[in-house]
Amino acid sequence: MFGFASLTIVALASSALAAPFEPRAIDERSLPNVISAATARSYLSSLTVAAESNSPAYDRDLFPTWITSEGKCNTREYILRRDATTVTEGSDCYPTSGTWTSAYDGVKTTLPSDLDIDHIVPLKEAWVSGARTWTTAQRQGLANDVTRPQLIAVTDNLNQSKGDKDIAEWVPPLKSYVCTYVRAWVQVKHYYDLTVDSAEKTAISKYLADC
């Protein structure tokens, strides 16, 4: 559960960014450390059901992205490197070439500019589900969390169509990835002690039943 001090959360994100990693194979389009469907069902039963609240109003600037790791690499660059099957990068850590397959739709690209880094649980969704009471440092931890399955490189226009929708309103169009997406969603909400609304919980339960 989400209980670390704010500085600890930021430190965890920063240390993870600095850790060594290898690009994943194209058929491993999955997020890191995703829980099982059984665990997701257990976590879902423990989440607090509450209506969303946007008071005070959401402001993306309260979720600082992307934080810098050691050297010049930031979170976006880390995810682009992690999610590539092949990648070459310049001295500033940004990819100069590579191959990516968007997990949400299976679309391949060799242009990093075609990709957005999606927050599985959108930042506004986190805000209306409890993050509005956090410190900015805690929100930065969520926005840059590479340890849990919260960030993934996907087709930019698809990410933009998702926006801040929850699972009652949007899941990836690639059906084979829906179960992974839903399990990751529950995992992030559970870790950060975020709430779910009733329609969201019903939709999650439906998808998990098919996992």
Number of contiguous helices = 8
Q: How would you spell out the order of helices and strands?
A: HHHEEEEHHEHHH
Largest sheet: 3 strands, antiparallel
Q: Roughly how many Å is the radius of gyration? A: 16 Å
Distance between the termini: 23 Å
The total count of strands amounts to 5
What percent of residues are in strands?
5-15%
- Spatial sequence of strands, sheet with the most strands: 1-2-3
Helix content: 25-40%
Uncertain runs: 4-28
Average pLDDT level: 88
Q: What is the domain tally? A: 1
- Please identify the structural class as seen in this structure: alpha+beta
Write down the overall geometry: globular
Layout of helices and strands, plus pairs?
Blueprint: H1 6-18, H2 37-46, H3 75-82, E1 84-89, E2 95-101, E3 108-109, E4 115-119, H4 123-128, H5 136-143, E5 151-155, H6 156-162, H7 175-191, H8 198-209
Antiparallel strand pairs: 1-2, 2-3, 4-5
InterPro entries: GmrSD_C
Protein name: GmrSD restriction endonucleases C-terminal domain-containing protein
Pfam family, one: GmrSD_C
Q: Which short descriptors sum up this protein?
A:
211 residues; alpha+beta; 8 helices; 5 strands; GmrSD restriction endonucleases C-terminal domain-containing protein; signal; GmrSD_C
